[in-house]
C-alpha cells in the first residue's frame, strides 16, 4: 500500500475565496521533516478527495496528478512533477493545451507542454534554461470547491537540488482554479531567506493550435526583444502589427505587455489571456526546428523578464486567467 503524506499546513497567501466553500488541506508526494506533517496510508491508483471535483490519480508513467472537474463539465490535469497543468478541456471536450510528442513523463526532463513554470530564471542565464521549478515535485497543500469550481494550491520550497543552483530559501504557492470556461492561476513567490534575492519567471503556456491560422492580438506598440533571426543575438525593436501571425520561426519577448491578449488558435477558439503583474509576454513557435509538431501549437507566455527583487519576508504575486466565450 502506497503512503501519502498529509500536511496540516494552514497559512496561505491572500487567495480570493468567496463563500460558500469547502476547504481541505492536503497532501504531498515527498516526505517532509516537519512536526506539522502526519502520514496516512492510501491506495496507489487513485484517491477521491473529500473536495468535490478534485481527484488524485496516476498519470502517464504513473506520475501523480490531480484531476480537476468542474460542475459544468470542464476538466484540467495538474502533474505534481513540475507543477504543470497538462490539460484543460472545456465543456465541448476540446483540450486547449498541447503536449509535445517528445514529452516524457519519467522525471528525466521537464514535461514538454501544458503550462510549465520557468522559475527562478526565464533564461538564458547562469542556470539551466527556464530554471528548476519545472523539474521538481510540488506538493498539494490545499483544495477547495467554490460553487462547483475546484481549486488546488501547490507548494514548492527550496531543497538541496534547488540550492545547488540558487542558494536561497523560498516558498512558491501556485493556486489553480477551474471554472466552466476558464482556468485561473495565482503564483506567489515568498522570500523565506534572511537575505534578498532576485528572479525572473514565466508561465510557458503551450496552446494547441493550427499554426497557419493562429494569431495573437494586443501587443502592438510593445518594445520587443526578438530572437529571430538569431537567437544568440536578440534585436531590440517595437511591435508594429495589430495581429501577429506565425508564418515561420517566432521567438520574441514583449516588454510591458498589456494585461489582456487574445489568441485565435486557428481551430475555432479565441482565448482571452488576462493577467495581473505578469508584466511581459513571450511568443514562441520553433518552426522547422521541431518539424514533428510545430504546426500544432503556439506558446503565448506570461512572463516577468526583468528581475524581481524580493526582500526577506516579502511576496511577489501574479495571476493568469485563460478563458473562452
Ligand atoms: O524548454 P522548452 O519548453 O523546449 O522551450 C524552449 C523555448 O522556450 C521559450 O520560452 C523561449 O523563448 C525559447 O527561446 C526557447 O527555445
Walkthrough of the structure:
- It is a single chain.
- With 325 residues, this protein is mostly beta strands.
- It has one domain: Beta-galactosidase, Chain A, domain 5, CATH 2.70.98.
- The protein contains one helix and 26 strands.
- It has one helix at residues 160-165, and strands at 3-7, 21-24, 27-28, 37-41, 46-48, 54-58, 64-69, 75-79, 84-89, 117-118, 139-146, 149-157, 170-179, 182-191, 197-203, 206-208, 215-217, 223-226, 235-238, 243-245, 250-255, 260-264, 270-276, 280-285, 297-310, 315-323.
- The strands form four sheets. A ten-stranded antiparallel beta sheet has the order 2-11-12-13-14-26-23-22-17-20, with no helix packed on it.
- Strand 7 (64-69) and strand 8 (75-79) form a beta hairpin.
- The longest helix is centred in the middle third of the chain and has 6 residues, at 160-165.
- It is globular.
- The model is unreliable at 1-22 and 29-46 (pLDDT under 50).
- The protein binds 6-O-phosphono-beta-D-glucopyranose.
- 6-O-phosphono-beta-D-glucopyranose binds next to strand 24.
Amino acid at each position: 500500500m502506497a503512503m501519502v503524506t498529509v500536511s496540516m499546513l494552514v497559512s496561505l497567501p491572500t487567495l480570493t475565496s468567496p463563500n460558500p466553500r469547502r476547504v481541505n488541506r492536503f497532501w504531498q508526494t515527498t516526505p517532509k521533516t516537519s512536526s506539522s506533517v502526519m502520514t496516512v496510508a492510501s491506495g496507489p491508483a487513485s484517491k477521491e478527495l473529500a473536495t468535490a471535483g478534485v481527484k488524485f490519480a496516476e498519470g502517464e508513467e504513473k506520475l501523480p496528478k490531480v484531476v480537476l472537474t468542474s460542475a459544468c463539465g470542464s476538466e484540467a490535469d495538474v502533474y505534481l512533477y513540475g507543477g504543470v497543468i497538462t490539460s484543460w478541456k472545456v465543456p465541448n471536450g476540446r483540450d486547449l493545451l498541447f503536449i509535445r510528442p517528445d514529452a516524457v513523463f519519467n522525471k528525466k526532463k521537464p514535461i514538454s507542454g501544458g503550462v510549465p513554470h520557468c522559475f527562478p530564471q526565464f533564461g538564458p542565464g547562469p542556470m539551466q534554461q527556464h530554471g528548476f521549478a519545472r523539474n521538481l515535485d510540488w506538493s498539494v497543500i490545499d483544495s477547495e470547491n467554490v460553487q462547483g469550481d475546484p481549486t488546488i494550491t501547490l507548494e514548492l520550497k527550496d531543497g538541496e537540488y534547488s540550492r545547488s543552483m540558487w542558494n536561497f530559501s523560498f516558498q512558491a504557492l501556485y493556486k489553480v482554479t477551474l471554472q466552466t470556461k476558464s482556468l485561473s492561476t495565482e503564483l506567489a513567490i515568498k522570500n523565506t531567506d534572511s537575505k534578498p534575492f532576485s528572479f525572473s519567471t514565466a508561465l510557458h503556456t503551450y496552446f494547441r493550435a493550427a499554426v497557419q491560422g493562429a494569431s495573437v492580438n494586443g501587443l502592438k506598440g510593445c518594445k520587443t526583444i526578438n530572437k529571430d533571426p538569431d537567437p544568440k543575438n536578440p534585436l531590440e525593436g517595437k511591435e508594429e502589427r495589430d495581429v501577429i501571425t506565425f508564418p515561420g520561426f517566432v521567438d520574441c519577448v514583449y516588454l510591458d505587455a498589456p494585461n489582456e491578449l487574445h489568441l485565435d488558435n486557428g481551430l475555432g477558439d479565441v482565448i482571452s489571456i488576462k493577467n495581473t503583474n505578469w508584466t511581459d509576454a513571450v511568443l514562441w513557435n520553433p518552426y522547422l526546428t521541431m518539424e514533428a509538431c510545430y504546426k500544432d501549437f503556439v506558446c503565448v507566455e506570461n512572463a516577468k523578464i526583468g528581475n524581481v527583487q524580493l526582500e526577506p519576508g516579502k511576496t511577489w504575486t501574479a495571476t493568469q486567467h485563460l478563458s473562452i466565450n
